Amino acid sequence: MSQRQTGVAYRVLADMIAGLLVGAFLGYWVDRWLGWAPYSLVTGLVLGFAAGANNAWRAIRVYSDEAAKGGDEGRRLP
After folding, report:
1. Domain extents for the chain?
2. More confident of the two residues 19 and 74
């Protein structure tokens, strides 16, 4: 596994975790503010997961496009 692949894998992981944390925080905040027991938290988690998956998919697509063009080979260190 190259450094570029490892970097993309860590970015996908960070995107997924960040999406879930931001969605959970906003959902919890709306729950506390409006008193909608678990509904906003669950909605925030679902939307956060969807946003994280979308960002991860875009990162994977960009990497695969660069790899198909041969852009990954020129970036390796000697």
Report:
1. 3-70
2. 19
